[in-house]
Amino acid sequence: MVGARKTFSYRLVRVIYLLILTVGALAMLIPFAWSLSTSLKPLGESMAYPPVWWPHPFDWSNFTVIWTMVPLARWFLNSAIVAVSVTIGNLIIDSLAGYALARIPFRGRNVLHLGIVSMLMIPFQSVMLPVYILLRWLGLLDNYGGMIVPVLVSAMGVFLMRQAFLTVPQELEDAAMIDGAGRLRMFWQISLPMVTPSLMTLALMIFMGSWNNFLLPLLVANRSHLWTVPLGIVMFQQEYFVNWPYLMAGSVLATLPIAILFLVFQRFFVRGVTTTGLK
Amino acid sequence: MASIEGAGSSSLPAFPKGNAFRRRARRELGVGYMFTLPSVLLLFLFTLGPALYSLYLSFFSWSLLNHMHFVGWQNFVQLFQMPLFWISVRNSVVFALVVVPTQTVVALLLAAILNQNLPARGFFRLAFFFPAVSSSAVISIIFMWIYNKFGLLNGFLSVFGIVGPDWLGNPSFALSSIMLLNIWTTSGYFMVVFLAGLQAIPAEMYEAAAIDGAGRWRSFSRITVPLLSPSTFFIVVMGIVGTLQMFDQSFIMSQGTGGPLNSTTTIVLLIYQFIFSYGQVGYGAAATVLLFLLILLATLATNWWFKRKLDYL
Q1: I need a labelling partner for B279 at 20 to 30 A (CA). Which of A78, A135, B187, B304 fits?
Q2: How much is the pTM?
Q3: CB–CB of A122 and B139 under 8 A?
Q4: CA quadruple A14, A17, A23, A25: dihedral sign
Q5: Is residue B233 assigned to a domain?
Q6: Does the residue B8 lie in any domain?
Q7: Based on the structure, what is the number of domains in chain B?
Q8: Does residue B131 have a cis peptide bond before it, meaning omega lies within 30 degrees of 0?
Q9: In this predicted model, what pLDDT tens digit does every residue of B173-216 receive, in sequence order?
Q10: What is the CATH number of domain A70-276?
């Protein structure tokens, strides 16, 4: 009797849980679905009120039109150049520092570690003004350098790589050391291959951060041929006109690369969040 | 894996260890610095240095084009007398006060539910996490369309006979709309952080509580919440740091103006305007310094609050 009631309440609770999750998931996905739906409508239909969900017929022309109306291909190229450079730079620089902090005993190491981690409390937005002045002084405005150099290192990345290198067994390095390997070779040939999953996580997180970065390109790139995808789309929206199907087509295209990366490598993203708790 | 282990065991005993290691230790000092040098240099140049530089600049009057001159505390005095500055502080603080608790609670509840043995967990985690990996710029534009007077949100409300406002064009709703967008973006992200914390709580604790007759709510409030407090602390601090420097959404949704009627002007947006609209670097630098102070105070207060709570446990 008691058991039967218990299973009933157990089932009821599960149903309520699933209901909450379903409503939540819908709330998360509807904006993206709506932008996809709008991107496939002609302007007139997109303005229909109350809104119509299913475009009929599917109008692909918004995509082809914006592709020729604004230099979208160029913006994608810029985003790719910047994001790939930033990712490669971080992979090298963050893992070198992470390795040293985890593995090489040297004076001041703990202070350095603390100092680097405390840089997490100074995010980019808050130092926008002095960084802008610095970039201006260094001649890094209006070129790729300005969008790449300031984010070549990430305190989060150093932290992530240090955590990863701490898990590599010391014996492996001792053996290599006795064989006469230098630090660079030990790092490159022994420890680095052992932390490939972390490198993958770091690469994805940095790539995503750079691809989505809006403020730095906004500060650096004045001329439209240097704009990245997010900046270009925002400028397109602000300076031209409000044609929502065009804007949504642009948004869909801008989201696509990250969405694909995320779907394919989801577990690395989740790993990144759970080991660092940070973007 | 096998070959690496083999290499380790075969070469270890062959050499006298002490001397080689000591000699190496001396060489290591330099290697350690060399490995960390690029990071330290870049972080100094683009993070710590700028923070200090803004303190320096806050004592000067400068438009980027003229000569700098020293004005002492004048920038701060001027800033304190500027209504727009206080509006921006209020907007940022209200934004943080609403968004941080809400996103933390939503994230915690979602994580607690998702941690149950339910079907399609992978799908739900994916769906909740996805907004956090999307571009803030693109999301802002999508939401501008949804918040439109004749957009999806008002279309949905009209089903219930509610005539929704022009969300972003109405000063009473604009900031709240951005808050909602922000909670929507970050809750799923922090949910994943909570999930990791939840998985570290041993299942036996819940079993023991169930034997003692504790219900669902009791085990949630007496076991889950207290044991998660390290994750919660982290999430609250990151939430504060993130919300107090909100810029992208405000900038994009108000076309850089902070409007309507300055209702979405945040501190960072004001700093941006000081450089690019008003040419007042000193004011911007002073506001930067004050923003640091605000973040520091909020973080210390959170730290104190959590410490006090943990002492009770």
Answers
A1: A78
A2: 0.89
A3: no
A4: negative
A5: yes
A6: no
A7: 2
A8: no
A9: 999 999 999 999 999 989 988 988 888 888 888 888 888 888 88
A10: 1.10.3720.10
